[in-house]
């Protein structure tokens, strides 16, 4: 753990302890339960809809949905109401990724009675969201353009102590850190695969930032820089496509990949994509294989 992280860790624990004590004494024992359902309404030709859904903590895997089939899962909000699930969709030559659930946006358009349910339907022309009203017609569905207006249900009574906790932690961090900011990291992804039949294609993003699709010829790299968030939960993942192969994994997270990154500023993680798999280096010219394509 870097010195900057050490300076912030103790006050963060104190803040969380304060907040947790309030939650235990004031909450009813559990947060709201939600269900997300994704239904395919696209033709099976040339292939059925393929989806891959996950949150920062849970990977729900890949699923192939034929016309009329659905994939659904249930969960409870975390205490901070920051639960977020995102999905990647593939159909024909098209693909798309976006948040299918986030408390401060999507939840406001879901079924309002417990269990709160968000119904997504995937159609040839796009993605639609319903609140579960059986009388709802097509024109009553909402598109994925969602206004970012916060909603508060049972979590409303928890919001004030959380603000107080974070205010304490932020004040401490600013007063004790040398530069007032967290460490800066760089992630670099380089292609070492042939361009035949096609160059490497990647799509990298975090929960908050979509870095878009990139085509990398042999020897080219794509890199980006960022600072860790205050809670040190920053995570970036990438999808990789080459030839008939594809793979997805975290290229950076604050507690695993970072330990194998370059230890001197600027902290950096170097990934090399090769025909036999994915290699990680801390910048000292030594490469360790982390993943196979399979």
From TrEMBL:
The keyword Secreted applies. InterPro entries: Self-incomp_S1 (IPR010264). Keywords: Secreted, Self-incompatibility, Signal. One of its GO terms (biological process) is rejection of self pollen. Pfam families: Self-incomp_S1. GO terms for cellular component: extracellular region. It is found in: Secreted. Belongs to the plant self-incompatibility (S1) protein family. This is S-protein homolog. It comes from Rhododendron griersonianum. The lineage of its organism: Eukaryota, Viridiplantae, Streptophyta, Embryophyta, Tracheophyta.
